[in-house]
Please model this.
Amino acid sequence: MSTPVHRAATRPSAAVSMPPRQGRAGSPAGHPLLRMQSSAGNRATTAAVQRARGEDKGKAPENGGASAGAQKKNYRDRIAALLDRFKKNLEPIDTFVKGVQTPVNAGFTQHAAAAADQGVKHSAAASGTSAASGNLLTEATGTVVNGMEAYKNMKDARKHETGAGHHTAKKKARTKGADTAVGAAGSAAYSAAIAKEVTKIQKAADAAVASEASGVASASVGAVKGVRAVFRVGGAARKYQKVKELGDPHLVHAGSLARLNESREQADWAAAEAYVALDAYWNHEGEGRLELVAEAIDAAWEAMGEARDAAESLRRAEQDVEKLNRVQEYAKKKQLTKMGKETVGGAVGESTKAAAGVVTAVAAGTAGLASNPVGWGLAGAGAGLVLGVTLYKALRAATKRYEEKRHPERWAPAGKDPAEAASRDESLKHALKFWKKVSQGERQAMAREIYALAAGPGIPGSGGTTAEMRESARALLIALKSGPAQHKLEPEAWADTLDDPVKSAGWIKEIAEQLASG
Model:
């Protein structure tokens, strides 16, 4: 066994000492190339031997000593991240294709059919093929990413059997699973659209059949997306109603604020009376004057402390009421916004596109590839609605990314120094990175405020919250679908998780997710 090893070790040196004429013909870079290969091979061999013999002497291997399962998971996460970024880079092009190129192609196709212009018809079919191909690439990539995300979150849900981590993972697994199914159906529809356009280019006899199949597929996917949007609108409406039923915090906590104010007034009167007694004892003549004055000073000092504590409790309660009112209004605004986006872009936009698919299928089945202005108009209207919502989302996300860089102090966590503000140019560059998510925005700040109000006294900064205020904040969590039922916990155990500092990050992530979802 040793002989082959010695032979393998001698080969690199022979290759390095090879004269120039033995390298590639006419290639003066033969020596540098071989030296680079030899050096890289030696380094790889040395590293492999060290890992095999365990002679690294405290230096961790490149994979950090991870097990095969951990390496596999790491590779899967890296592949998913690369695919996700690839998909997000395709999305701007995909948006343009869906909102502009596809409706324009449909218009030219309708004109060509009405005027019997084969040249325009052929050009529109070629453009339609490229458009459907781009849509298919984006949809298929998204389907793979969503499938991987669904699988990952299913495993996380099984790992976290209860609590915020379980609910967040389970909800994502369900959502991503549905996205995967819809994406697969969408990929099939785009494949049918490609086949339809190809038959037009080739002037095939079965072009009408392909057009009819494409229309049916498009109508089916649009109908599924429209129905799903309706369910999302219903979920957001129910969540909005539950938050609204909590009532105005100023009215709900008017009684507790009145009691705290009464306690403050009584403490102020007690302090004033203690100072009056102190003045009386101070002017007292006779034996024991110093003892009486000392006792009066102690009483006045204690009364002033109680008055100060009462005033601080009232001030803290008033601030908490304002915070609770602010986060409730924000939660309602998020649900109203979600209802609007899902109604316009999903329920109406996708349903209109589905109707366009139906009209196309009927026209293809009854009149071949004749003029179809109704289908064209419906397709254009549906695409315009979806495009408008998509552009709105993109503009909002870009604005949030800009603020995150330009004004990091606006939504920075309390008690932590915010990051240094970036310049206007750097902030604009960051805003254009559409593949990046906002990590420190308004939604995350509101989630931290809700958690601070609902958390137990064991959480730093939450010890001064009144019991009534804490109960109201926890009622808000239940309205946001983050209650004991969703976490598979009894109410007492659920409340204990709110008082566990280890679970604070998971809770804040859970609340932020629930604020954005219906």
Remarks:
- Residues 1-66, 367-371 have pLDDT under 50 and may be disordered.
